[in-house]
Amino acid sequence: MFPIMEYKERIKKTKEKMALEGIDVLLITNPSNMNYLSGYDAWSFYVHQMLVVTLKEEQPFWIGRKQDANSAKATTWLDQKNIYSYTDDYVHSITKHPMDVIARVLDEKGLNNCVMGVEKENYYFTAKAYEQLQKGIPNVVFKDSTLLVNYVRMIKSDLEIEYMKRAGTIVEKAMKTAIEEINVGVRENEVVAQIYHSQIWGTEKYGGDYPAIVPLLPSGERTSSPHITWSDQTYKLGDYVIIELAGCYQRYHAPLARTLAIGEPSQEATDLAAVVNEGICETLDFIKPGVTCEEIEEVWRTTIAQHGFIKDSRIGYSMGLSYPPDWGEHTASLRAGDKTILRPNMTFHLIPGIWYDDFGIEISESFVVTEKGIETFAKFPRDLYVK
Amino acid sequence: MFPIMEYKERIKKTKEKMALEGIDVLLITNPSNMNYLSGYDAWSFYVHQMLVVTLKEEQPFWIGRKQDANSAKATTWLDQKNIYSYTDDYVHSITKHPMDVIARVLDEKGLNNCVMGVEKENYYFTAKAYEQLQKGIPNVVFKDSTLLVNYVRMIKSDLEIEYMKRAGTIVEKAMKTAIEEINVGVRENEVVAQIYHSQIWGTEKYGGDYPAIVPLLPSGERTSSPHITWSDQTYKLGDYVIIELAGCYQRYHAPLARTLAIGEPSQEATDLAAVVNEGICETLDFIKPGVTCEEIEEVWRTTIAQHGFIKDSRIGYSMGLSYPPDWGEHTASLRAGDKTILRPNMTFHLIPGIWYDDFGIEISESFVVTEKGIETFAKFPRDLYVK
């Protein structure tokens, strides 16, 4: 939980954007946005729930499943009267839909004839949910407000940065564990078991929260399939392993990627790692308030081009507070065409990589933009690790 | 991976249902359904992807992000020519949507003037995705086919049951760990760190996969908030803890819940645990092929009513193969009104509970319906555990 004043400030900024875009009522179904504005935190996003912000009322209100209303009381700063719920017969029913109850609540509160923002491109706002909502309050004009709150979230408060630094300390431990545990004959799942232990145990002072993505550590030819998850096969001599994982503290993330060679790496791999490292150094050196996302990607691209690598791709994204299935914030991307101007307390995951046909090198840093440059959340050497 | 014949059998059953419902083309975006029909398995469901089944073609085809096409090649039984992809500039872009590419692929394949089933109530099929798809192939008649494949999945093959038994062995270990580790002065996250280690390490023979829901172990007054996740606070003497977690083997789940008292439990708690246990015994004894879901719930309800407890609720659901955020299959529920008839090789999580104001008892079993009754996946005494 953050101080109530911080939540009120976030609500204020959200309302300012709503007013600017002509939105009277904002229905927030993205769990990260719900958490950001109310503090709500529970693994209940697998059923329909939302937070409703209106221009007129000071507090937002929460609507969700009855048994989760207790979680709302326990984790949010909202008054009890602003917590509404639906009964369990609406859960995974083929005849009843939670949006019918939600539409009724909105209707009874007089929110049935206005401009309403909905997060159309959010995992937890299904096509069906939108249909039912439209049926329930037919006089409402709906607007797509998918990233409205996400953009408010982009510039973090100092306390949010502090949480991400704690996540950074946790990810250092988890990455150290991964590098220690990976070896010939060890099963991939055994390494992940140890990584999870590090991620959740956290530090003496700060316990770890669950990251929004599971640890990924594809090896051998699977390094070209970055989102494939672990198996119970063993690592082999000659494998390269790309390790991508995050530390998480109270839903705030610090992701990190490193590459490891099991056995002596080839000259080609060592050279490639040096190129990636040079690219990262140049890129991080360039970043400061005022530069744009596309300028950052250009520095990376021109640096590696000097070594003959032509690669035009997204090399990072804004991130921070998140829930599964992704720790990305879905706002700014470090890629050509993204003209977002960097400001202090924005936070990114810079994750470039270069792949040959049979292996690749991926090394990343999570960082906060400071007054003069950047600071990485984890302090972890960017070597090509060798076992 | 299952034998190809098993995938073909699943496709056959899916097509039979499609034909019956007048659906020419089925767009599958639920990652569990994609896995079930193709074998596809990667943490890539945070971007748009789908599997397309047509009545005319033998194999389905996969469409997703370019870098995930390698995962499709590595994990599915599909020919390479049936794997299509979109480039990275479509990922989390505010100007381009992956469904535009997907609509184009469908259009080019002549699937632009037919009846198309879509999973409208699926986490990974957003309101926006549906809108873009409708724009891209405007002559298509869309039908809601949310649970079409889920219902095919309800009756498991013997090999699927074997996978769930392996998950059952893993959950026994994870629950044993939880009960051993919870104690006065131990932080909640430290217990979860050990649980994760057990879940993922698995057994000597079978490595653990990530369960679709994180371990839940609310204590004290938080036992009335079943979906609240762990903190880094320590357990206290007198706390009751409800532990709900799953073993997972290659995406197949065996969930289990037990209740633990830290310190001597009150007479009230011991009595309540006895009632819950009696209810579970009577309910499990009753289950066999031919009975209905609502009859099962009625047995539970009348058994606890003999002890003065009136509770009318959902006490379980069909489950098995799944991805986050839920391990439930969203088909049959053990509750009043659900007339689903049980068949051999259906699999359920029976999770009843009774709550007082200040604490509750929750004890569960995952089971498979056999020819004559049921068999639980985990063999784990249903005691009220005391530390």
UniProtKB/TrEMBL annotation, chains A, B:
CDD domains registered for this protein in UniProt: APP_MetAP
SUPFAM superfamilies: Creatinase/aminopeptidase, Creatinase/prolidase N-terminal domain
UniProt organism field: Salinibacillus xinjiangensis
Annotated InterPro entries: Creatin/AminoP/Spt16_N, Creatinase/aminopeptidase-like, Creatinase_N, Pept_M24, Peptidase_M24B
Domain Peptidase M24: residue ranges: 162-371
UniProt-recorded name of the protein: M24 family metallopeptidase
Chain ranges of the Creatinase N-terminal domain: 10-155
